[in-house]
Amino acid sequence: MNRSGGKETGVGVCLHIKNMVCDRCVMAVRELFASLDIKVSSVTLGCVALAEPVDEATFGRIKERLVALGFELIDDKRLMLAEQIKNEIIRIVHHGNGLLNENLSEHLQRACNYEYSTLSKVFSDVTGMTVEKYFIAQKIEKVKELLDYDELSLNQIADRLCYSSAAHLSGQFKSVTGMTPTEYKKLKVKSRTPIDKI
């Protein structure tokens, strides 16, 4: 049976999961499925491809255990698409290794298999913010993280995150946070937002 929260894949059902935003999330979800003795063909940000469909009782246990870990199954197509866009942007900004050099709209079109105008409208309708604003918010959180590590200069951070200059980064940082990167570094208590809460 195809128990939803997902769509059919070549090997079974793909469950779409909200709040999977990092490698630790992927590991936690992989361990959850292993503990339930459910075979998966892959676990990626926001998606678990089951090796075979599961029955109602098993699906209920999956849902309960995911909620206990702070995750949530998504079964609304528009919510799934918005979550896929979020996960793709998080992957680009926080785990991308070179993907920031690509054009965002073209990358999202390829990754999500929809025209960018559709992606942009769905994302705005579901989240109340534009794709671009979300992308910038994620980049600013990455800047904060790199500033906290204090291993790179502002110019190096700007290069790493594909800003045209340190001045451009500083201007965008100030418009989002209300302070310059230097002022942020001087704070005793940092104000970072978990990437799944943006």
Produce a short descriptive summary.
It contains nine helices and five strands; from the N terminus they run ββαββαβααααααα. The chain is α+β, with helices and mostly antiparallel strands and 198 residues long.
Give an account of the 3D structure.
It is a single chain. The protein is of the alpha+beta class and 198 residues long. It has nine helices and five strands. Strands 1, 2, 3, 4 and 5 form a five-stranded antiparallel beta sheet that branches.
* Overall spatial form: globular
Count of extended strands: 5
Share in helix: 55-70%
Give the low-pLDDT segments. 1-11
State the secondary-structure class.
alpha+beta
Mean pLDDT: 89
Task: Please compute the radius of gyration using only Cα atoms.
Answer: 19 Å
Beta-strand fraction estimate? 5-15%
State the distance separating the first and last CA atoms: 35 Å
Report the biggest beta sheet as strand number plus sense, adding barrel if it closes.
5 strands, antiparallel
- H-E string: EEHEEHEHHHHHHH
Number of helices: 9
